[in-house]
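Chain A, query sequence.
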Amino acid sequence: MRAMILDAPKQPLRLEERPIPSPGQGQLLIQVRACAVCRTDLHIVDGELHRPKLPLILGHEIIGRVAGAGGVTTAGERPRVGVPWLAWSCGECPYCRSGRENLCDRALFTGYDVDGGYADYTVADSRFCFGIPDGYSDLEAAPLMCAGLIGYRSLKLAGDAQRLGLYGIGAAAHILIQVARYQGRRVYAFTRPGDSAGQEFALSLGAEWAGGSDQMPPFPLDAAIIFAPVGALVPIALRAVAKGGVVVCGGIQMTDIPSFPYEILWEERVVRSVANLTRSDAAEFLALAPKVPVRTQVEEFPLTAANDALAALKRGRVKGAAVLSMVTAS
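Chain A, predicted structure.
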């Protein structure tokens, strides 16, 4: 099979021919059809996440067909499944036992601790694979597995906010705007200053207002979710939320948050982060997505152009989500 390999941080991925992996006990062998490119992949390549398995096959927004199983009974013929960031949790620690497997100290992550989906085949724990709703092509479904899931968890942690601000209009926000509007929320979108194309994109998805991150919204927000990995946005968002408002940091990595006056946190404002996802998040979101219905906008790249996809994402040149497409034997 073909695989794009990261040998060390800050190096381009290289193409390698590898044997098709064999599924272990409880694992599925998955013929990958599509894998979305996530900003987390950029953080790994850039060395901002410090303990990846190396050499590594990146990718944790995987859509594929089951091609084999290790001691697992699969329903139907070659069912389609999705594989997300959370690859495994222990099921025994206090976090797992309290429904917070996303915080498991022993958790493993796809495309970080274990090989992911920038390849023609991958293996994954069957308990952490999910059926994909009908009505989505493989390319359209891939962003649901992280941009959708992490966006949905971020939205849950924002509470019942009716006026919702989103900072950073990328893959996650372009899905979340649709979900929030379906739920009757009012969305205010913030882009890089001067990014008129990004603001128009947000408005086309249902945002009520769009402007630069250097602007204040027309009304105080009940909550704000920050998807851009820019710590300086935290005090900006705090100034934009009303008393009792919540600022949710939705990324796995962010630049340092600058100091800010206590007065913009006072009046019971809250700053919190989102870490990973749980299987219940996936079940809830994948049931909700076709009801909205969420429509993902994707830019397709062949597997061998993974470096180009990463570069386009880093430069902010992707509208919606970048997705790698695999041409594999049936």
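The two ends are 13 Å apart (CA to CA). The chain has nine helices and 18 strands.
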